[in-house]
Amino acid sequence: MSWFQCYFDLMFGGKLYIPCELACDAGTAETRVRQEPLIAQTFTGGIARDMTDRLVCIYSVVTLPSASSHLRKPSRRLVGDETTCFWGRDFRGMIGDTTEEGEAIVAGRTAVVPENREHVGMFQDYVGERVFLSSSTATIEDSSMYEDLEKQIESLFRTCDEDYFEDGTVSSFSRELCAVIDNCRNAAIELIAYWFLRGNIKHNIMSEALRWLGRIEQAETHSYRLWLLGKCIESQSVIVRDGALLGIAALDDPHSTPTLRSAIEKEKCEELRIEMQSVLKQLEDTAQCR
Amino acid sequence: MPLMLRRIKKQNWYKQTHPWLDENEIPADPLADMNTSENSLSVWYITDDKANLSDVVAAIAANRESLSNLDYAIFDSKVCSGLGIEIEHSPGDTPHRNANKNWHRDLKTLSGNKLLALTAAIYRSGTRKRTNDKEVLGLLVAASSAGTIPIEDIKGDSLREKVERKLRSGG
User: Fold this and answer.
1) Which chain A residue has the Cα nearest residue B157?
2) pTM score, two decimals?
3) Alpha carbons A227 and A259: distance in angstroms, whole number
4) A249 close contact with B: CB closer than 8 A
5) A280 to chain B: nearest residue by CA?
6) Which of A211, A243, A271 sits opposite B15 (nearest CB)?
7) Residue B107: closest CA among B83, B130, B128
8) Of A3, A104, A93, A96, whose CA–CA distance to A44 is shortest?
9) Measured between CB atoms, which of A167, A272, A278 is closest to B9?
10) Contact assessment for residue A112 and residue A86, using Cβ atoms and an 8 Å cutoff
């Protein structure tokens, strides 16, 4: 078995970050989950989205720490136990739904984006259907379309020859970046995340992209962009951290607060830490106004 | 003593430890924000009490295509006189007419060496600040409400639309 590190992705209501590891055995129906729960008491089945390894959440049932008053009876029954999940199931529920057994339900997707061809074969053989990437409103089911998008994103980052991006100016890079996100939504963000977290992209280009990621007004990709900005604020590069900070400030979502607090504690560049504290204050003020 | 403001990009000025940098040197990245034209560098005059700072920031922001953070460095004008750099009062070119008339300056007759010395002085003793997107928008809305920046003169279409939207929603 190979273990893949992943996080839990909620189809509805944002993201729940529970670091866990998933192992898939192509020869059996079994998927094992090894995890360190942050929020959930138990984590049943399913895997989560992992931007680095490009694995996408299947489905799962998560038991929340305490019963919530908003929990209500489910519309359908889940299948699965603590160590197995079933590929190919597309369970969608609302946060707060419960099974008949009283477990709180969160939703997930069933698409898998494997890391390499071997994984593709493994998953496809088991699932018995074509592996595809899906997002909440736009589905790229044609692998050639996905490959085209992949090439477009790669080209965008690799061929950008601008050394200096002026604040307040729309460059051809930022124009194309915004256009591809506008057209391809979360699929584009996934690929951007892949390149950021795995690729060898120039730091000034990443920084510029992160600023624009925060400025885009697109509800569908909001959570994903929030996540990516939060990852990049941990970058080794001060330029990338600065770009991520500006993106977080532009997005102005108080959900970034915990990530930012953690970044402040780790930040060694005093000037940047001061800027982080300023953005933290902005987010806290925003939270109070809501 | 009056102050000078130069628009910069803060990411180029963060102080980091570079093992290859000699003690009396500054890194090269700050020079990217010191582009001259005909050996002159555009700056803005800021009063001692910084009473016009918001107006100058709004003026610069209104002259851009899109809403963005605005980073700047403020330094003492004595730095210029100490380096033999001439300061000339020249009209600005932003939608803020009052700022254009009263607060724009050109640092003239800059040699490469003087430019480097100026950059080093700003790097070592200047104050670097950032106004985030949200604050910039707030300044533009305030300036438009006050009439100091006519909304129709804001340069970028998307920027103008954001200001209009904010004004409609009550600022």
Assistant:
1) A170
2) 0.71
3) 10
4) yes
5) B132
6) A271
7) B83
8) A104
9) A167
10) no
